[in-house]
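We modelled the chain as a single entity of 840 amino acids. Its sequence is:
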Amino acid sequence: MRVPLSWLREYVDVPADAGVDDVFAALVSVGFEEEEAISFEVTGPVVVGQVLSFEAEPQKNGKTIRWCQVDVGEAEPRGIVCGASNFFEGDKVVVALPGAVLPGPFPISARKTYGHVSDGMIASARELGLGDEHSGILRLSELGLDPGPGTDAIALLGLDDVAVDVNVTPDRGYALSIRGIAREYAHATGAAFRDPAEHLWDDVQPGSGFAIAVDDQNPLRGRVGASEFVARVVRDVDPSRPTPAWMIARLTLAGIRSLGILIDITNYVMLELGNPIHGYDLDRLQGGITVRRAAEGEKITTLDGKERTLSAEDLLITDESGPIGLAGVMGGGTTEMTDATRNVLIEAANFDTVSIARTARRHKLPSEASRRFERGVDPLIPFVAARRVADLMVELAGGTLDTEFGGALYGEVFLASVELPRAFVPQLIGVDYTDAEITDALEMIGCEVSDLSGDVSGGGEGWEVIPPSWRPDLTDKWTLAEEVARIHGLDRIPSILPTPPSGRGLTPLQKGRRRVANALAAAGYVETPSFPFATADANDLHGSASGEQAPSIRLANPLDGQAPYLRRSLVPGLLQVAHRNLSRGFTDLALFETGLVFTPEPGVEYGTAEVPPLAVRPDDETLAALNAAIPPQPRRVAVLLTGSVTARQPGHPPVLADLSDALAAVQTIASAAGVRIDVAQGQRAALHPGRTGVLTVGGVEVGYVGEVLPQVSADADLTGRVYVAELELDGILSLAGEPDVAASLSGYPAATQDVSLVVGEDVVAGDVAAALTDGAGELLESLRLVDDYRGQGLEPGTKSLTFALRFRAPDRTLTAAEATEAKLAGVAVASERYAATIRE
């Protein structure tokens, strides 16, 4: 919210010597975030000049300039070159003299141009920062001003004003107004506050005779779309009258450009009181006004010239001709105020916050009006705001208020009370506030506070608090406690960390996820989170082993129309990240990601559960129905390798990544998760046949590992070989069970032995290793495959697998005989299971 200081001073006593930093400090102390200071960035001398004469001089470039003699209040007129042609002799204009600086910055100096020395510049509104219109020189008569030559134009036009911009959180919509910010400044400093609405409460009711109705057959949250609607009529306005310079300056600083006196007045009052206002050309209205929901597919052309197709949830303002406005968002083009408008119908209303928010987002049409309505407007202010607009149109546009004609829809304003226990605020905030401090703070922000027991001495158990009408966010004792802390200063809250209850912290599943991610990062992998969106082809190829069409969840409003589905696999995202890095010259990549995938079951229709109203806490049955309407979302971990795992060094060539590195990543995951992952040959549509492994834990399939098919890599614009692995992370962690207690390290030496076993070519090396492990018993500390030989010296159809075994006992030094005995026991099991024989 941008707040011009001159405007703020009208309603609160800001000291004359208070600058931007002082105002920011005061507002920050009551919970607002400082953004920036906005000014016109104009420094003098900038004065009023009167054009005495000019000569038009055509130039060789086809342009015609004017050589002007301008009276700027000095002994002699100044000669100034000007390229505009929209002013006349005798006009009062704004002249920037040498030494002035205009927004840009654009310093002004006397300079030779077009054969003359131009001793200054005649400025336009755009050059002064008063708007973006390219309408030529600013003629002061168009603003209703007739100052003498030499008058300071900076003060005359309000260019010496400055605005403070503060961030207003969604729960404090009342602060999107000068009225709200002025009240908060008064809270922060104790300065006297003058409510701009207070002097308008008398005689704010409009006349009768204009039909207003609400026909809402589709209320949201159990509330109709409009609870109040006020219509006032001002006749015989003159839309050609100039907007006063002070109003243009304030609107410009507040971020709103001037669009003519009638629209400027409605915008000015919206900023002043916080209630959006809309003006209609009364002569273009057909009959009365009805507020209703749109018919599905109904259309309206809004003020921005776009035709919009409506939803049945959209709230409309209509007359007998049909829709004339999107309620609380933007008016329609058929009844807008124009230069031909003579009679104005002023609308001030209170619309349902959820209806307005959904309409603005549905049509991607945020506006100053919707921004305020969706945060909540003071329900007692529409009558006042309508009267304020009418008074300004009478004063500035020459109209006449029709007190006999108008209309109003009255709504009951119910302000629910909140019980505030006496000890609650000190216990929650941790500050020993006195009873007087609590009640004073609440009364300062506009609450009505009374003792629950009715004891006027305040000796009861607490207070009954009725929040003010402009604070819909104060709904319970917690929000009231926050207000007490805010008013008395957040710096009073002690900086003491609370002691957490024992047994709290991360769950075992969360700890496991962190261990896996940390282990991969420590192994040299880089985590690269990606968007969870994919194409249908990517979901089919990577989301199932066979590559057949798999059911996927399609987004109703996708960010990328080419990837409208939720991913079934993490691999497509890693391929995109790898492509992006390769295109930027990073050729050696080791990437990983942990995240959710979405795997709907075939034939199941999701998203059919009824969503409960926002203000209603769902019961267990409702939550169960909502969960059943959501597809399974398992959490996975995936890795991708391409390029070199070891860079080229002096005397050593680069070592390219291969399948063993991907398997090593799988074992890193297994070690961090506390499980044993077995690998067996398998097949997947996106992976190379013969270089694909199925990963299991205790016989349960948990993922896959392998080399990506060359064609799939090429489709992803990746060069070289690419290796991936994807595992069910939460599934692995759940299979790990309770974590094992770390075993003590043995201080005794190890005994190492090798064994070469001849088995059939179709026997999986991992199965032979498992047999050796089972047979060798507890003395076997580790086992590693070091050679896979096939060829001369072996029978056709066989292969030789060599394993390095390490044995160790916890309580003694093993003898060679003991190690050999354990090895042979393992060989016996391998022989029994797979007919393995020791290679001679």
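As a brief sanity check on the tokenised model: The mean pLDDT is 90. The first strand starts at residue 2 and ends at 4.
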